[in-house]
Design goal:
Layout (H helix, E strand, L loop, with lengths): L2 H24 L2 H13 L9 H7 L22 E4 L4 E3 L7 E7 L4 H17 L3 E7 L4 H11 L5 E4 L14 E5 L5 E6 L7 H8 L3
Parallel strand pairs: 3-4, 4-5
Antiparallel strand pairs: 1-2, 1-5, 3-6, 6-7
Length: 207
């Protein structure tokens, strides 16, 4: 390989490295990676899997000999939050409604990847479903600035107390859905495309 070719390759590597360093230094790497992962969501391979819940919900007239339905798990509402205006709010405020509880952070690429689909779902179902977008950022101002910059206007919160054990997860994003009766109906770890029509019908079935 000629010296000129070697030099050109090193220049290319240097430019890539400089871009990578800049992205990490500015915190934009998560958004770039999240944008790339959004393409994967568009394939439909990451649509929320709610088939198991729907299966059990449709077996009410069957005997226990035919199907063993799981016992409902009561959601823990003993949990305090702080909203965008700095006001303290208890999760129990939303009791009686279907709750979409999403754990996310601005430094989490999969969280950023799924955010547009959550924003769309919120626009369509914000009056029917209580959305609790729980930021796990150490600096809540970053989460608020991200929400404003993206033009989402989502109901974002930060924890005001320790997370109840049932909401502790080793992965983010993690999404919990609580039905109107106060039961933990569905848990999903990892990103998903929540604009899927089947998921909207699933939420409507939990009222």
């Amino acid at each position: 390989m000629k010296i000129k070719e070697i030099t050109n390759k090193w220049i290319q590597y240097g430019v890539v490295a400089a871009v990578a360093v800049t992205l990490y230094a500015t915190g934009l790497h998560a958004e770039v990676i999240g944008f790339a992962q959004r393409g994967f969501l568009a394939t439909g391979l990451m649509d929320p899997d709610v088939e198991q819940y729907v299966h059990f919900a449709n077996t009410e007239d069957q005997s226990l000999d035919e199907v063993q339905k799981p016992d409902p798990i009561q959601a823990d509402f003993n949990f305090n939050l702080i909203d965008k205006e700095g006001k303290a709010v208890s999760l129990s405020k939303f009791k009686g409604k279907v709750i979409f509880l999403n754990m996310w952070a601005t430094w989490c690429p999969p969280c950023i990847a799924e955010m547009p689909s959550i924003d769309k779902l919120h626009e369509e179902m914000g009056d029917e479903v209580a959305f609790v977008m729980l930021s796990l950022d150490q600096n809540f101002d970053k989460a608020k600035a991200f929400d404003k910059r993206k033009g989402y206007d989502l109901p974002i919160f930060t924890p005001a107390s320790n997370l109840p054990a049932m909401y502790e997860s080793n992965a983010i994003p993690t999404t919990y859905v609580i039905d109107a009766a106060g039961n933990l109906a569905w848990t999903h770890k990892g990103m998903a495309d929540y604009s899927d029509p089947g998921f909207k019908k699933f939420l409507q079935s939990l009222k």
